[in-house]
Amino acid sequence: PQRIGKWREAQGLSPSPSGPGPLRDLPDWSFSDGRPSPPWRGQERRISESRELMCRALTLSRSLEAAKRRRSSQYKPVWTGEKAPPPPEAPPTPGHTLSPNKKS
User: Fold this and answer.
1) Residue ranges under compositional bias (Low complexity) (predicted)?
2) Residue 20 · residue 14 · CB < 8 Å
3) How many Å apart are CA 90 and CA 99, to the nearest integer?
4) With the CA atoms of 68, 73, 74 and 78 taken in that order, what torsion angle do they form, in degrees rounded to the nearest 10?
5) Partner residues linked to 30 by β-bridges
């Protein structure tokens, strides 16, 4: 069984024949007029599971986007139309007597 799994991986297939792939996911037959065969129970279950997962991902994505919008609108800067005050001056460092604007 181990060697078969390694061979399948080397061929680009899943290690188990029951894993995802054309043998599992595609129908075995179709009608002569081209209509597909009815889905199997396993196919219906996988389709249902993937739809549920898609709906959950979509719901979580939408709630995350809504939370981002709420947070960004909550913390927008308020513009009063006045000029902003200058930044505060840094206190002089000990032992430093020269001003940054003066040359010695």
Assistant:
1) 12-24
2) yes
3) 11
4) 150
5) 36
> Do the beta carbons of residue 48 and residue 56 sit within 8 Å?
no
Q: What is the pLDDT of residues 49-76, one digit of tens each?
A: 999 999 999 999 999 999 988 888 776 6
Judge whether 18 and 24 are in contact, CB under 8 Å: yes
pLDDT digit string, tens, across residues 74-95: 766 666 677 766 677 766 666 6
Question: For the chain, what's the residue count?
Answer: 104
Q: What is the dihedral of CA 64, 65, 66, 71, to 10 degrees?
A: 90
Three-state SS letters, the chain:
CHHHHHHHHHCCCCCCCCCCCHHHHCCCCECCCCCECCCCHHHHHHHHHHHHHHHHHHHHHHHHHHHHHHHHHHCCCCCCCCCCCCCCCCCCCCCCCCCCCCCC
Which residue, among 11, 33, 13, has the nearest Cα to 25 in the 3D structure? 13
